[in-house]
Amino acid sequence: MLFILRAHWIFFFAALAMATTALAQSNPKNIDSARKEGEIVWYGSLTGGTIVGRIIKAFEDKYPPIKVKYLRMGGAGLIERIRSEARAGKFLWDIATAEYVQFFQLPKHVALAKYFTPEFQKFAEPHRDPNGTWISLYGAIATIGWNTRMVKPADAPKDWRNLLEPKWKGKKIGVPAEAYQWYGGMVAYLGDKAGRDFMRALAEQDPQTQQGYTNTANLLVAGEFPVAIIRAHRIELARAKGAPVDWSAEANPIVYSIHPAGISEKAPHPNAARFFYDFLASVEGQTLFTEEGFTSSHSGVKALFPRVGLDRIKHPAPPDAKVSERIQVWLKEHQETFHVPVAR
To answer: Which domains does the chain have, with CATH numbers?
Structure first.
């Protein structure tokens, strides 16, 4: 009996070793080939701060003479560009990153390579693809923020229903023009009727809309409006510099967004792309994101600001593939509800 048990475990570990070896061999990369390829083309929606430049410098210093070319676009514009290029038979990019509501649309237009970075198992399961086509590079939470010079502590809007109070009516609430992922996440969490009823009531408060979460945070700091829908890490970064702002960790819900990255199956620089992907997923790469205030799904990387950690959020609305599937619905409703100007 003991012999049989030992034989069973020997077979198990041998099979596990073979599977691991097969996985590694199915995702080859070669540093000499990567250096011959010489560059990486990175399409992304990441902006704000110095993070892109810091990532590129750190990678290029680590793997000379490989250069990273970054093309920044809004999430919707990024997907449209990739779709248009694919239709024309052009595959110019190696790695793409975007907010999940856009990123999950990619497989409709292009194939993503199956590549299991060595750090794959260290990422939270909901924030990695079991098939190996993507991992989440960073996360951010959307909630309510306020200017502490303009809002007394007792008046601070801790929950969404507080924004419907008469005192916030008339251009006193800032709403990012691109907040349709927040819109969709809220409606999905609250339910179609309750969620849409809330959005219509919020629109009746006559809020201001402006481009970008970063811009909205800056305007809140400057006192352009007393309260706003914000990304919490932007407020924490401002607070760390002494800005008079704060945010609610009690809002029900707080919408959490991940930002996946994936490699094109037809990447023009496949070896270099894999080294860059591994770098982004490493502790070193993930730390560059958390130093900018973002959250990381990597078990070995801690948040710069503990308040933004998911373990501190009472009512998270997590990323939902169903929200991504209805992206055009949320985009149209958000624009129509909050009278967001649409470029023609």
So the answer is: 2-139+257-308 (3.40.190.10), 140-256+311-337 (3.40.190.10)
